[in-house]
Write a structure and sequence with these properties.
The complex is a heterodimer of chains A (262) and B (75). By secondary structure, chain A is mostly helical. In chain A, 64% of the residues lie in helices and 2% in strands. Chain A contains ten helices and two strands, in the order ααααααααββαα. In chain A, 44% of the residues are buried. In chain B, 27% of the residues lie in helices and 29% in strands. In chain B, a hairpin with a 7-residue loop joins strand 1 and strand 2. The chains are: A mainly alpha (262), B alpha+beta (75). The interface between A and B is medium-sized, with 17 and 16 residues.
Amino acid sequence: MTDALDLSTLNEDQRDALVRLIVTLADSKRLMGIRYSDWTLGAPSIETGVSMASMTQDEWGHARLLYAMLKTLDIDPGPFEYERTGDKFASVSALDREPLDWAAVVALMVLADGALSTMLRSVAQGTLEQARRRVPKMLAEEQYHMSMGSAWYRRLADSGGESRRLLAVATEDILPGLLAWVGVDDAAARRMVAIGILDSAADRLALYRDEVREFVALVGVDIDAVLGTSEWDEVRGRAVGRPDEEACERARGDRNRALLVE
Amino acid sequence: MREFVYDVFTRKERGDRLQHVGYVDAFDDETAKVYAWTTYSEEKWFEMCVVKRVNVLPVNRTDGLYVDAQESAHD
């Protein structure tokens, strides 16, 4: 493994790029938790609901650890966690809207949570010391998410009819934004590659395509024919758009903090 | 959707007896493992296993959960 990066040597552009990477990962984890939490009640069985609750806890734990990595750059994570408006959120576009049916949740589990794991695996193998220490445990927990998502994806795809149709719709809807995110190759991303924090865009994208290929094929989607969205926001490092306001309010925990007594 | 009962067995420490802690309903082995791990998460288990109830063969009883499982498998 290559030597860990000395963060004090980063120039301003590199620091900004690293902040962008950490925040997009952390925001995505937090929003993922919110989308899972909405299905702790209403999932197809009690066992599935319990699993959704557990996965919610995992995602929020991961988000907290990722935001805390900003401290290594002498940045207080508080304002990022609690004070940003929705237009500043950098979560992946797949999480912008509440999934309205179970098939859409399953698509998020496999494709969006899977995209996050692809990026985290890359970061865990890179030169960022804190990621090397913290991310492997996250990825171990994510194995259960992928097992659950994979089993349900196959189940719905094999069932035919409306379930399969909804799964196909959700898959086609979220893939372009996820492909753009995993395969990001703008100036900030290239800075991360140059200092060994991320693998190359081509490598990340190839890995992600390999991981989801067999699943999306079940609903008639050829992953190699899907292109990443071209509407890209370089400041936040995600596709153009933003999460709905209610989700942002919950992500910040506005109502919870209103109850705190100093 | 057809679901099956999976019995859940755990041991807390290496060397402990494997004990039956409950069951989950699941449609396949993979979901059974996830459901068991997330449902029976009250301890930090050294080991957890699931067994599809229909694969448990009753030895001396002619009634009870495991006999019922055998019978329902042939329905």
